[in-house]
Amino acid sequence: MSGFFPSRTMSIYMGRMFLTRTFAILAALVIILQALDLLSESGKILAVQGNGSDQVWRYVGLRIPQIVSTFLPFSVLLGTILTLITMNANSEVVALKASGLSTHQVLAPLMVTALGVAIVSFAFNERIVARATGTLEQWKKVEYGPLPIDRGDRSNVWVRDGDNLMQVTQVRGKGDAVQLHGIKIYERTGRRLRSVVIADHGVRDGEGWRIGNARRFDVNTGQTATVGSLHVANDIRPDQFTLQQVDAESLPFTQLKEAIDDLKLAGRPTKALEGSLWHKLSGPLSAILMPLLGAVAAFGIARSGKLFVRAVIGMALGFLYFVADNFALSMGNLGAYPPFLAAWAPFLLFAMIGELVLLRTEE
User: Fold this and answer.
1) What pLDDT is attached to residue 243?
2) Are 68 and 30 in contact (CB under 8 A)?
3) CA 307 → CA 108, 303, 354, 361, distances in Å?
4) DSSP notation for 246-271
5) Overall domain count for the chain
6) Quick one: pLDDT at residue 237?
7) Does one domain contain both 210 and 119?
8) How many CA atoms lie within 13 A of 63 on its CB side?
């Protein structure tokens, strides 16, 4: 296997050059994009009474992981092209080819290094980006005000039962062990409100729910009567209280898969979430494609005057991949593409395109 790579010294040299350029470009992109983003958001943050520089820096800390995750593949592409252009201009690629190495062998150190970047990217997304995204989305919902403490409970949940509406102040537990607290049932005929049933708590009871210490307020008479324990809402399942809208970007891979399994058991549509689940794998792995797509900048005579053109072609191939990837993922969210195809089709397509370009270059 070691014969597939250049010498150890050359492989380390290429890998170090590639990583240096990739993360230098990434750092520049993060600084510029974060500064531009902060110009639009800092006013909203500071408009909240009590917010100051600490909250601005908190926003920066939550936003930077998102920017890094989004633009790391772009940085890998540009880092690849800069590395290969430099080696081509210094005739290092010519020397490697003259020693009997194929184009695949020349690119092998970059491919292995890109695989390491992909693994680090996946771990970074799982451990940091998902949490930062979830926290930032919650903070935006309260318009950068104080965040409520999240204990895993659901609050202010509304569920429809035929014409009736059921509001629960707090939901605890999962499955048949769900407990409801602060219950209001708006009993209606069509759109006309007849009465409101108020109860302190409720638990699962057979096909429906058993609520205790219930009172019924009659709209027509304006009187409240104590009705004690009632069996209500036979058509409401436990998951309707516990399964809220799932944000795929805010959940790591394992938690998102568990949420998808729960939604499937509840009969909810999951195609868009399944596409996002597969994309959590194909997204970081796109780093491996970048040396393949940018390889067109490595081969050819530098003094021919076409080095810049080949670099532009490499960038165009890389950016076309990102366009195709976003388009396929959008089509998957709309249900036009199967989830697996939406996540992996661009990756496989451009892997074949990159390999074709490389083989033509070899010839």
Assistant:
1) 64
2) yes
3) 21, 8, 18, 14
4) --GGGS-HHHHHHHHHHHHHTT---H
5) 2
6) 79
7) no
8) 20
Instruction: Tell me, yes or no, whether 109 and 192 share the same domain.
Output: no
Q: Do residues 51 and 132 share a domain?
A: yes
Choose among 361, 363, 360, 358: nearest CA to 110.
358
182 domain residue, yes or no: yes
Give the range of the structural domain holding residue 119, as residue numbers without chain letter: 2-146+270-362
Q: What is the CA radius of gyration of the chain?
A: 28
CA distance linking residue 31 with residue 14, whole number of Å: 26
Q: Which stretches of the chain score pLDDT less than 50?
A: 1
Instruction: Write the single-letter amino acid at 350.
Output: F
CB neighbour class for 71 (10 Å; exposed up to 12, middle 13-18, buried from 19): middle
Residue 207: Cβ-neighbour burial (10 angstroms; 0-12, 13-18, 19+):
exposed
Q: Give me the half-sphere count of Cα atoms (radius 13 Å) on the Cβ side of residue 306.
A: 9
pLDDT in tens, 2-33: 567 778 888 899 999 999 999 999 999 999 99
111/104 Cα distance (integer angstroms): 9
Looking at the DSSP assignment, which residues form a beta bridge with residue 155? 170
Is the CB of residue 114 less than 8 Å from the CB of residue 291? yes
Question: Do 263 and 246 meet the contact criterion of CB atoms below 8 Å apart?
Answer: yes
Instruction: Say if 306 falls within a structural domain.
Output: yes
State in Å, rounded, how far the first CA of the chain is from the last one. 24
| Model pLDDT for residues 266-277, shown as the tens digit of each residue | 666 788 889 999
pTM: 0.76
The closest of 351, 345, 281, 343 to 318, measured between CA atoms, is: 351
- Quick check: is 245 in a domain? no
Q: What is the rounded CA–CA span in Å between residue 227 and residue 11?
A: 79
Q: How many residues does the chain have?
A: 363
For 305, other C-beta atoms within 10 Å of its C-beta total: 8
Query: What span, in angstroms and rounded, lies between the C-alpha atoms of 33 and 31?
Result: 6
Nearest to 208 by CA among 225, 182, 224, 185: 185
What is the structure's pLDDT at 152? 56
User: Hey, which bits of the chain come out as E strands?
Assistant: 154-161, 164-172, 179-189, 192-205, 208-218, 224-232
